[in-house]
Each structure stands twice: as structure tokens, then as C-alpha cells.
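Give me C-alpha cells for this 231-residue protein.
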Amino acid sequence: MDIRSEFGRRIKELRARSGMSQELLAYRAGLDRTYISGVERGERNVSLVNIGKIAAALQVSLEYFFSGERFSASVAYQPKDFAIPFKERFKYSLDRDKRLLAFQVNGLFSGKKDVDYLSSVIFGICSAYGNNELDILVDHRGMKASDGEPVVYSPDIAELAGVFQQELTIYSKRVICLCNSRFMVEQLNHVAKTSGIYDKATHLFEKDRLMVENAYSLLDIHDNELVKPAK
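Here you go.
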């Protein structure tokens, strides 16, 4: 495989794992859809300027774009990814003594209704607390499509997540998120900067047990009833 084909596949896999069409990626990058199509097929020599535009549209750094973390190019956010209702894939727990709210999402957000449901639950709990009183532990390790591979937020979900985080920052002292990939870390860092929660947020991805232990350490806890290392 030559470098143009390899580069095209990289774009396609990152686009596919975030549920983006070629048209949407082209729009976000300010490029023509036929250009993106040609790049993904390995038919174009891409300028540095356009590489930067595409990486920004995918919400990743250039360093990450050329990293070794790879995925399949199968398209996520398909109907089969939502066979199990969101309410069965969303869990939460509140440790009142430690003032620690943990929540976990397995699988994908199907759209605004899922985000609205999560928001109503989380902010229903937060409303009993004052500003900067809660620590938040988010577990996104299980955000995978039906093919078992990691996904990141789709563009519409990422936008809603920014709004959610803006409100969450009112109640939170610290937000620690366990991610399913470095790709997710890149995206959530971008969302956190946009929402203004970046100084409070830490997004982790490493070997599972080490990642969970680091989260515990950052939160000054030794265990959590919901978020535990994988067996």
C-alpha cells in the first residue's frame, strides 16, 4: 500500500468511527466532497494545509492523526448499534460521603433524546449540590459499536456534549473520564476546551487497570461501586 492509499484509509477509518459521511467531513473541513472521496481512494497528493483542515474537522491533533492507533473502516452509528435501549446501557451511582457522582455509558448515543435523558438524570442529582461541590467520574470504556470496536461521539452528539459540559462545570470540582481510545481523548479534549471545562477535566486512556487506578488516585478514592477495572 502506497502512502497516499494509507493516508486515505486513515481518514476513512476516523471518519467512519465518528459516524461522519464524506459530505459532512468535507463541509467541516471546508473542502469539496469529491476531493475527500479522491483522498480516501488514494488518488490525490494532499497539501499540508488540507491535512490540517481534515484533522481539525475530525477534532484530532496532527500528532494523533499520524499515530499508530488504528481502527476498522466499518461505519458506526448504524441501526444495529442501537438494538439495546439507551436506558439499559446507562448506569450511575452517587457516593454521598465522598460527593462523587459516577456514570457509565455502554454503546452509542443515538441522538438528542439519549443526551436529554442522561442530562435529566445527572442534573437532577447535581441540583441538590452547590457550585463546585461534586467530583464526576465518567466511564466511556464501553462506548463501542456492534462490531466491538471503539467509537467517538458523532458530530451532533459532540455538540450536545459541549452544552452538557457547560452546565456540568457549575457543579463539578473535577471531571475524570475513562476513554475507549486515544481518539476519544483527542475529541473530548476538544469538546472540553470548547465548553470551558478543560481546566477541570482529565481524559484518560491506557491499560485498563492502570487507567482506573489513576482515576481513583486523582479523585482520592480507593474503589467505586460502579467503575471498576475490567476482569
